[in-house]
Design goal:
Blueprint (H helix, E strand, L loop, with lengths): L6 E9 L13 E11 L2 E10 L8 H8 L4 E11 L2 E9 L1 H10 L3 E11 L2 E8 L7 E7 L7 E2 L5 E2 L8 H6 L6 H11 L11 E2 L3
Parallel strand pairs: 9-11
Antiparallel strand pairs: 1-5, 1-8, 1-10, 2-3, 2-6, 3-4, 4-5, 6-7, 7-8
Helix pairs in contact: 1-2
Length: 205
């Protein structure tokens, strides 16, 4: 991301079901992350990441423990998002320290991440576990603003500017507690996509 420093540029979408395309990732990752601070769009995140287990139906603490020596630890400071852009400074953290923090934290998100290429863009598909299941989100990230995007068919609606789908919100307010209300809202209002980032193209149309 030369020229932009510690800023990330991404767009995020709700996916109704994990697409078959996810199976093309030979090495999906388990991500377990705790939010030790989150307020007004600012957050501090501790993450432990490693190879996804065959049986992910465990508590976050058990998942972290199962990663063992294969885990990677990071600590990230985030700022508020605006127009698909967010300040994000990530630094490495000793995985043992990161794991111990995550295991003791009150607000934790666990998910399996699949990485795929579509055209010239790299996408990730996050299948959330535990109290955030069955939420699936798709994200595309670039080294600069994500404009003139071709949106895959599996994207049901865009939530780049919906703070409820930020991981720090999900850590405090799990999706299972408001999923029915959200689905009713989506049915009533229909899908929407950000129209201020160039021209959206929709796969299959």
């Amino acid at each position: 991301m030369s020229g932009y420093g510690d800023f990330e540029f991404e767009r995020k979408f709700v996916v109704h079901e994990l697409p078959a395309l996810a199976a093309s990732d030979p090495s999906p990752a388990l991500i377990v992350q705790a939010y030790v601070f989150a307020a007004d769009g600012y957050a501090v995140r501790i993450r432990v990441q490693g190879p996804a287990p065959a049986e992910p139906d465990r508590t976050p603490g058990e998942l972290v423990e199962a990663l063992g020596d294969e885990s990677i630890g990071t600590m990230t400071a985030k700022g508020p998002a605006a127009g698909g852009t967010r300040y994000e400074a990530e630094r490495e953290l000793d995985p043992m320290v990161a794991g111990q923090i995550v295991r003791r934290a009150a607000h934790v998100v666990a998910k399996i991440r699949y990485s795929v290429w579509l055209g010239e863009d790299g996408w990730v598909l996050d299948r959330f576990l535990g109290t955030n299941a069955p939420l699936v989100l798709a994200e595309v990230e670039r080294g600069g603003p994500v404009v003139d995007l071709t949106i895959p068919e599996f994207c049901a609606t865009e939530v780049s500017e919906d703070d409820r789908f930020r991981n720090e919100y999900l850590a405090h307010h799990p999706f299972s507690g408001w999923a029915d209300a959200y689905r009713s809202q989506l049915t009533r209002q229909g899908p929407s996509f950000v129209d201020t980032l160039g021209h959206n193209r929709f796969e299959g149309t």
